[in-house]
Design goal:
By secondary structure, this protein is an alpha+beta fold. It is about 25% helix and about 20% strand. The chain contains four helices and six strands; from the N terminus they run E-E-E-H-E-H-H-E-E-H. Pfam families: GSHPx.
Length: about 160
């Protein structure tokens, strides 16, 4: 099983079957609107704008498990992201990334690894569905290592 065998509810309704991203490079980030790292939305959008035409898909997964920093409704989260950061990449419904309610996507991403440490932890998923890299929350979306990892996996 890979993440492409999982589906996740979209923030604005409906379900996203992650199989639609098979063959793309997927960057999955647990996000929050009231976190000191929230300004990373800007750099996430820039990364998405730079590489989406080459096959990068960015999926933001709002999560309220860290300091209650994503308390909003789906409508509030969507509006916050669009208005304040111009977010156009897909956002999933608010999900749990740790504990017994961990979403199946995060069960696949984490495997036997440690729990998510905080908001804005990043997973780079290769086109075949394997996790190619995991980056700490403090690693900015324009970090040279993160960008190099994405570029290496994208088709030329």
């Amino acid at each position: 099983m890979t993440i492409f065998d999982v589906s996740i509810d979209a923030l604005t309704g409906g379900t996203t079957d992650l199989d639609r991203y098979r063959g793309s490079v997927l960057l999955v980030v647990n996000v929050a609107s009231r976190c000191g790292l929230t300004p990373q939305y800007d750099k996430l959008q820039n990364l998405y704008d730079t590489y989406r035409d080459r096959g990068l898909v960015l999926l933001g997964v709002p999560c309220d498990q860290f300091g209650h920093q994503e308390p909003g409704t789906a409508t509030e989260i969507d509006e916050f992201c669009r208005v304040n950061y111009g977010v156009t990449f897909p956002l999933a419904a608010k999900s749990e990334v740790n504990g017994p309610g961990r979403h199946p996507l995060y069960r696949e991403l984490i495997g036997d690894g440690p729990d998510i440490r905080w908001n804005f932890e990043k997973f780079v998923v290769a086109p075949d569905g394997t996790v190619a890299a995991r980056f700490d929350p403090q690693v900015a979306p324009d970090d040279a290592d993160l960008v190099a990892t994405v570029e290496k996996l994208l088709p030329r």
